[in-house]
Specification:
Number of strands: 9
Helix content: 25-40%
Strand order of the largest sheet: 7-6-5-8-9
């Protein structure tokens, strides 16, 4: 065995140490060293799962042909990964690429799972879009196709109804895309990537999602017409597999 790569759902230090992986119940572990020992000392590389997926999309996915890519995953939460000159930028404390916890909404009163308020994840994730839809339905008596779903409305319902021209659904999705475009503008003004790659379940909305996001991204980046484009991820759940392989090859 030449080596193995592993994506982990939490901040990963450069030496593979993980302080916490909430969803796995891990604390203060170094799975990189542990797995290497189990594999008779074989090379093992580890990284945050979103960062690893970003590397995969850069190598063989939506960002293929580019070496400076920022990936954004819109799922239950919002994940992200920054790849510069072909290498993941994880940062000194493993927090690089935590795009979901960029503060974008000052008026937010509810807390994010991270303990903050106004995070991108609270409005642009699948759960955030559904929550925004419930808020919009409660705030007015405006007729909408979303009302037939009630409190069980999902992000997919919002996207489907928006494609059908429902005004409340369009407003809901546009809000999510506005804050996503704002976060992308922040990132552009720091690392200036070649392209943003959007993946995750919400990305299945396709062109309506990228068009609305690009509209707001353009509004927030008037300084230059030359900047990153926005494309959809193409590897799906295999992005992490490709990224893990690329880590070992590097």
């Amino acid at each position: 065995l030449a080596g193995a790569g592993l994506g982990l759902p939490g901040p990963v230090m450069p030496d593979g140490f993980v302080g916490v992986c909430v969803n796995l119940g891990w604390k203060n572990k170094n799975p990189q060293k542990e797995l290497s020992a189990l594999l008779d000392g074989a090379l093992v590389r580890t990284g945050n799962d979103a960062n690893v997926a970003a590397l995969g999309e850069m190598w063989q996915g939506g960002g293929k042909g580019c070496s400076n890519v920022v990936a954004v995953t819109l799922g239950t939460g919002v994940g992200g990964g920054v790849v510069i000159n072909g290498h993941v930028i994880a940062g000194v404390h493993g927090l690089g690429g935590e795009l979901g916890h960029i503060h974008v909404r000052d008026e937010e009163k509810e807390f994010c799972n991270c303990g903050g308020r106004g995070c991108l994840e609270q409005v642009a994730s699948a759960t955030g879009i559904a929550r925004e839809a419930r808020r919009n339905m409660a705030a007015s008596t405006q007729p909408s196709a979303l009302r037939k779903f009630g409190d069980k409305v999902t992000a997919k319902n919002v996207c489907d109804c928006a494609k059908d021209g429902d005004s409340m659904a369009i407003e809901t999705l546009d809000t999510a895309c506005r804050y996503l475009g704002l976060a992308m503008a922040y990132v552009t003004h720091i690392v200036d990537p070649e392209v943003f790659v959007i993946g995750g379940g919400v990305s299945r909305a396709g062109k309506i999602l990228t068009d609305l996001t690009m509209k707001h991204y353009e509004e927030f980046t008037p300084v230059s017409k030359k900047k990153a484009g926005i494309v959809l991820a193409s590897l799906g759940n295999d992005a992490g597999i490709y990224g893990a392989a690329r880590m070992v090859l590097d």
